[in-house]
Specification:
- The chain has 218 residues and is α+β, with helices and mostly antiparallel strands.
- The protein is built from 4 helices and 11 strands.
- It has helices spanning 92-95, 99-113, 137-151, 185-205, and strands spanning 20-21, 26-29, 34-38, 43-47, 52-58, 62-68, 73-78, 121-126, 158-161, 167-172, 177-182.
- A 6-stranded mixed β-sheet has the order 1-4-7-6-8-9. Strands 2-3-5-10-11 form a 5-stranded mixed β-sheet, with no helix packed on it.
- Helix 3 (137-151) links the parallel strand 8 and strand 9 (158-161).
- The protein is globular.
Length: 218
């Protein structure tokens, strides 16, 4: 008699504070046999788990995917602006929207977790000008992240920056694999609107004098 088919149950989810985390948006994906962890703007995530895949969608934002192949630890950030013009960071939950802080934070957390700075494998993505705003923030973000790596003496193993369409990124920290998918024109408008809405929310939370994130989408 044939045995009844069984449904595979996902393993227990990892603890949120296992290494370093700014997100808790994870779900088990049976097709990839692993935990998908969504990294949103202004967030970062570090893991040593081989069954975690870090996911983000990028318009004008940039994400750095960084790992130490020998330590088996990696992470991703997602930032919206190159740097804070006034030099002030505010509280930690908001400051990682800036590239200079987001890069320092991710690298420092990786080193604290056991990575060696001189072994870091770095891949960067995003920086598309997905809106018709007068300030090409995507280009600014792309230029910033490459300048930052050069100034810090860190090499870039791979990059996919610029253009005019958004990207969806799947990063496998355990093996360093990145799957990049270019999204459609309709996705471009949706991602642009989401970034603009997020920018407006940040402006409402900031003291007066904060710079404008995006112009109006046309």
């Amino acid at each position: 008699m044939n045995a009844a088919p069984t449904t595979r149950r996902p393993p227990n989810p990892p603890a949120v504070d296992e290494l370093a985390s700014r997100t808790g948006r994870r779900f088990f994906d049976a097709a990839n046999d692993g935990w998908m962890v969504k990294v949103f703007p202004g967030e970062y995530y570090v893991t040593d788990r081989s069954d975690e895949i870090l996911v983000t969608v990028l318009g004008s934002c940039v994400a750095a995917c960084i790992r130490d192949p020998f330590a088996g630890i990696g992470g991703m950030n997602h930032f919206m602006l190159p740097h804070a013009h006034d030099g002030s960071w505010g509280d930690d939950l908001r400051s990682t929207r800036f590239g200079n802080y987001a890069m320092e934070k991710l690298i420092n957390e990786l080193v604290k977790a056991g990575c060696a700075r001189d072994r870091l494998e770095i891949k960067v993505f995003g920086g598309g000008n997905v809106t018709e705003a007068s300030n090409a923030i995507g280009s600014d973000n792309a230029e910033f992240v490459l300048s930052y790596l050069a100034a810090e003496g860190l090499s870039c193993a791979a990059k996919d920056l610029g253009g005019s369409v958004p990207r969806r990124i799947h990063y496998y920290p355990a093996i360093g694999r990145v799957v990049r998918r270019l999204l459609s024109a309709s996705d471009r408008f949706a991602v642009g609107c989401e970034e603009q809405d997020y920018g407006r929310k940040l402006q409402q939370e900031q003291p007066s004098g904060e710079i404008q994130l995006f112009g109006d989408i046309r």
